[in-house]
Amino acid sequence: MGLVMVEALRGVTFSIEAGDYISIMGPSGCGKSTMLNLLGCLDRPTAGHYFLGGDDVSQMNDDALSAVRGARLGFVFQSYNLIQQLTVVENIEIPLYYQDCPEDESRERAQDLATRVGLEERLDHKPFELSGGQQQRVAIARALVNDPLVILADEPTGNLDSNSGAEILKLFDELNEQGKTLILVTHDPSVAEHARRAIRLRDGQIESDVRK
Question: CA torsion sign, 7 to 190 to 179 to 132?
């Protein structure tokens, strides 16, 4: 059997301003995951360009893309993606390890962020000792620790009960009010309502882009 090429995205053009809070929505298979992978420098486009902080990352090699991800982007996933053997503060520190940050500075920044997301009493706990909402707070602190240009969140409340989900969304709202740029992929309209700009994809193209 021959290979069949599927265009996940085509003809997509838009810009993101510092401080934007964007939700990306659309039906299954519309290109949301591909969009997130491109914005997160996990994939490169087969055509076109992607500028992040003034640099054309679509032309970078894998090592350069890895450096960009570590220095400029923060990721929050539905499944938290924490390392079970590490404590809260150690999980938060992980991105700084790859930036060769001095140990004392790394620990101080991680502890400060743990406090910022309400986990100051849980620094030495392992992920399995935390609730889902607390684990997601660790993931958010980890995403913030390198002071990224953009935070990318993929269904960040998908595994949480309604109360924990509301707490996480409140934290996102506060981060955006403080000037952080957030891009949130979700299928839940109530989650998307927190964003101030809504991009809807359909069949690999932008169906609508509405600023509230």
Answer: negative
**What is the per-residue pLDDT across 149-194, written as a single tens digit (0 to 9) for each?**
999 999 999 999 999 999 999 999 999 999 999 999 998 999 999 9
- For 53, counting Cβ atoms within 10 Å of its Cβ (0-12 exposed, 13-18 middle, 19+ buried), the class is exposed
Question: What does the DSSP 8-state code read for residue 155?
Answer: S
CATH of the domain at 161: 3.40.50.300
Rounded average pLDDT over 39-53: 88
Classify residue 165: in a domain, yes or no: yes
Asked if 211 and 196 count as a contact pair (C-beta separation under 8 A), the reply is yes
Residue 11 falls within a domain, yes or no? no
Neighbours of 46 (CB within 10 A): 11
Q: Is residue 7 part of a domain?
A: no
Residue range of the domain that includes 70:
21-44+54-211
Long-range pairs of 134-138 with CB within 8 A, sequence gap ≥ 24: 135/80, 135/82, 136/76, 136/80, 136/160, 136/164, 136/168, 137/168, 137/171, 138/80, 138/82, 138/88, 138/91, 138/92, 138/114
Is pLDDT at 30 greater than 50 in this prediction?
yes
Task: Note the pTM of the prediction, 2 decimals.
Answer: 0.89
pLDDT score at 47: 85
pLDDT at residue number 192:
94
Is 138 contained in some domain? yes
